[in-house]
Amino acid sequence: MLALTGKVVVGLLVDEAVQKIKHKPVVAFEHRMILFQNIKYVSWVIPQFTLDYTPNLRALKPNFVVHGDDWKAGPQQVSGPAVQCVHDAILV
Q1: Which pTM value belongs to this model?
Q2: Cβ neighbours for 49, distance < 8 A, ≥ 6 positions apart
Q3: Which end of the chain is more exposed for a tag (fewer CB within 10 A), N or C?
Q4: Is 16 exposed, middle or buried (0-12, 13-18, 19+ CB in 10 A)?
């Protein structure tokens, strides 16, 4: 029931950012954006131009951040500490 308590914002990596850590996305950014925009409880989708989430986190000041576990190692390892340093968000 997140829609009842706040906004759900999806930060979506643009194709160029994805290619820095993985292969080229099978589904283009524009189509992935439309997919997320059509999920019932998603309030809005914002482009994530780099692997550094700090600018978006500073702008949004979220209470919670949900992220897959691929931030624990590798190129996205900076994401976890960035979440907690920028705002006292809970990383789920």
Answers
A1: 0.72
A2: 14, 16, 17
A3: N
A4: exposed
What secondary structure letter does DSSP report for 70? G
CATH 3.40.50.620 residue ranges for the chain: 1-50
Distance CA 29, CA 25 (A): 8
- What CATH architecture is 1-50? 3-Layer(aba) Sandwich (3.40)
pLDDT band, residue 4 (cuts 50/70/90)? low
pLDDT digits (tens, 9 = 90+) for 25-83: 899 999 999 999 999 999 999 999 988 878 888 888 887 787 766 666 666 665 555 55
Give the C-alpha separation, 34 to 65, whole Å: 21
Give the residue carrying structure tokens 């691929």: 70
